[in-house]
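Reminder: ligand-aware prediction takes two inputs, not one.
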Amino acid sequence: MLPVRGGRPKEEAASKQVLVVGAGLMGHGIAQLFAYAGYPVTLTDVSAEALAAAPERIRGNLLRMAEQGLADPERIEPALRLLRTVGDLEVAARDANFVVEAVSENLELKQELFRRLDSFCPPEAILATNTSVISITEIAAKAVRQGRIVGTHFWNPPTLVPLVEVIPGEQTSPETVESTFNLLTEVGKHPVRVKRDVPGFVGNRLQHALWREAISIVERGIADADVVDEVVKFGFGIRLPVLGPLETAELVGLDLTLAIHDYILKHLENSPAPSPLLVDKVAKGELGFKTGRGLREWSPEGAQRVRTDLEAHLFQWVKGHRVS
Ligand SMILES: NC(=O)c1ccc[n+]([C@@H]2O[C@H](COP(=O)([O-])OP(=O)(O)OC[C@H]3O[C@@H](n4cnc5c(N)ncnc54)[C@H](O)[C@@H]3O)[C@@H](O)[C@H]2O)c1
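Here is what comes back for the chain with nicotinamide-adenine-dinucleotide:
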């Protein structure tokens, strides 16, 4: 399934009112996705500034996509007309029947928000969280109707990256999962079903196992940060779009995989705590692109080049996977 398909038939779209809570990096993109697909979308945020900036951010994204042939210029203004911004959560939630929460990654904040959404939204509304790693069951804990709360883990930018992990909490009803899966498919995403609610779901468990080892390699002086990235980008990373890790294991043979694991696993990083190098960098304010220095040095131009290259790469990927 692809991220930039045509809009919904009018009757179908009109029957769904989407609410996106949080107008930041992910929230504005998720709002864009549904509005461009033809759904009326309400966007809300506690920051009046973030909320006010969202429509222009979305217009800018769609114009850049249109330059690449990935959005229809004629549909940009109609999509923006389907978007309304509302500061008050209770007002924003009144008519919503599909909600995506994309506020800051904080359990207490999300729990309280879902408690309030549960009381403000119509009883049939599905309430989805875009948490990166937090248990869906814990996020739902303070709500009454936990059966309609589900995880929908989008990836940045949600307008271009197709995957959404759909995660049921312990109380989530099968109907909630099914409707969510169907809606995400309709708007051109590639949803996958995660069977059990565990921290990090699938994508971030895999991703952070890799990052833990990558940081450990730098910390232990085995290779510099740029070399670690080159090993991925010019090596096994090129295969990944075609061959997932388990397909690779099957390709080389599970017998070879076993022999390698037998030898290597005891040598890999298995610390349950963040790396001391990472802790030290953060304590010193060396945060990466944001501060110009992290595990490497970043000039503003260098950081911008990476962002531009990433967007260009994602545009190419989407173009190559488009259905007409
Ligand atoms: N950034 C990513 O790559 C990424 C990818 C997948 C999932 N996520 C998850 O998506 C969520 C949002 O991440 P982001 O990167 O968009 O963050 P962000 O900081 O860009 O945006 C968060 C927004 O939430 C708003 N907010 C905070 N409390 C609120 C409240 N009570 N009500 C309404 N709005 C509130 C903030 O004002 C801010 O505009 C997090 O749970 C994050 O883990 C992020």
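Residues 300-320 form the longest helix (21 residues). Residues 251 and 307 are 33 Å apart (CA to CA). We will return to this case in the review session.
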